Amino acid sequence: MPTRGHLLLALVLSVVAGGAGILVARHTAPLNASSVEGLLWPNPRTLNAFSAVDQDGQPFTHENLRGRWSLLFFGFTHCPDICPVTLAALAQAKTGLTTAAKDTPLQVIFVSVDPERDAPAQLAEYVRYFDPDFLGLGGTLDQIRALTTQLGVAFFHGETTSTGDYSVDHSAAVFVIDPQMRMVGVLSAPHQPESLVMRFRNMADFVRRAGT
Questions:
Q1: Would you list the DSSP string of 30-69?
Q2: Tens of pLDDT, residues 14-71
Q3: Domain coordinates of the chain in residue numbers?
Q4: Which homologous superfamily does the CATH classification assign to the domain defined by 33-210?
């Protein structure tokens, strides 16, 4: 006949076993892409070859995206609101984003949709105001369009004023490129540092678990 001690031991073992079963179930639970906000799955978009010029005047191509997470934001240095707000949020979130990328490098890239005014020196001063590690991309308008067309990024130059100034309407989203050079997600505005980190972590964890 089992003693009280035996019954307690059996109860403890059953609880432990049940907890382990829950952990295993959670670990092996089916991937659910629909639960990850902004994730483009099961059809991520692989980037084709493109070329641009970085803030130091050096060539930048699709190969510079390989082997790292890249967060691309499109704007222009004369932008009065969306660009500085978004870049400031990305700068505040950078530590958390880097942690969420695990052991894979992460880069934040500001791509100018006004490359005629945004020369490399202008881009360097602008992006480094927010964070010294941020990258800026420019080049010719055709080079920029070769990238925006692939990602589905629309932008429109407004009418030039009597002073020669003009604005550019552009997307406020941040585009997530994985280490295999695929656009796997879109972080839509509004952007708050905590939300950026949480949404990117969910995307990165999903892509790692998917293993494709």
A1: PP-GGGSTTB--S--EE----EEEETTS-EEEGGGGTTSE
A2: 433 444 343 333 343 446 888 999 999 999 999 999 999 999 999 999 999 999 999 9
A3: 1-30, 33-210
A4: Glutaredoxin (3.40.30.10)
